[in-house]
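Hey,
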Amino acid sequence: MKVLLVGSGGREHAMAWKISQSPLLSELIMAPGNPGMARLGRCASVPASDIPELVALAKTEGVDLVVVGPEAPIAMGIANRLEKLGIPVFAPRSDAAQLEASKVWAKSFMRRNRIPTASFEVFSDFEEAKEYVYEACEYPCVIKADGLAAGKGVFVVKNKSEALLALETIMVKAKFGVSGREVVIEDYLPGRELSVFVASDGYAHRFIGWAVDYKQLKDNDQGPNTGGMGSVSPVPFLREEDLSRIEEEVINPTFEGLRREGLIYRGILYFGLMWTDEGPFVLEYNVRMGDPEAQAVLPLMTNDLLEICLAGTQESMPKIDLMPPEGASCCVVLASEGYPDSPITGRTIMGAEIAGELEGVLIFHSGTKEERGRLITDGGRVLSVVGLGKDLEEARTRAYEAVSKISFEGMQFRKDIGSPGRFR
């Protein structure tokens, strides 16, 4: 099979690494890809946001399947365009992508379909939202920009002044552009966060992995929200039987609700959950794998990812006999100085090759590029360093040993990814 993979981040590098192992694959094209991905196939210099050019590339190359990594092209309707041309694509159409593209729509969907989630209110007027946080809100609470914000549009606020600052950032200063025209203000749910990933062909689905991610920039969940500074898999604080409860109370009702509303969901659906004393509650949906969760989940997967993606386009997911994941993983993200607000790029990366040669270590590229024979930083999140082991302790040790081999000026990373104290 000739496959086109859309994207250029650590998630897409992990997907490319896994897809490249499939005996079904004859050629892998990646658009636009990155230096790490280039070792696994052929990169085409087409941005992931350029839907017409991506569609033209798929048509010109005569690909058998398109797999889409990031959320933006999905929300922009790449699956709609490809399906019209008869090109198989493993990604949901834009109508189903509202699950991520609009938090207002997603929360309303959950309410309509009685899927457990925090109580919420929606506002499109700043003054009305301000009055609510001053007069009616209980703290802490959570304020979310409606649209896509690269994982940075969620604010957990402890008091009125923090709430006002979040509202001003989203609605007045318009930090997230049109994504902040509406906000969701919801109750804070105490508990433990986790991410669950499910592959669907529109009618049947398969669980493909779960993880815990670390969203704040600094240790002990301090500092600003980021796209993710690390992840571990499997989820240390849950048991296999807990997954059955998630399936019954969250996953099945979600897919049933989508079909009831005429939305056929083909692709990977990410359930961002809070595990509370009362069980699982949905914090958010994402219409693709997480980043950096994919970097932790995919190396543990024993099945063929390309076979799963193909089944998603052929309504043959029931034929997939999923094997349980093996071992544990710990992913540590290395970020540029100034991330997440104003990352400084163009700095030489040292030691990545040496780190990648260590036993039980994988290095996935995100914000990198090659310039005059040097690997340099070219984004906020630069590399994902993944340690693999028989258990989380071994995986964590290997990840941080590899991190110690890598350096670039201003390098930021958390030192508590996978720390056992978090999961007691």
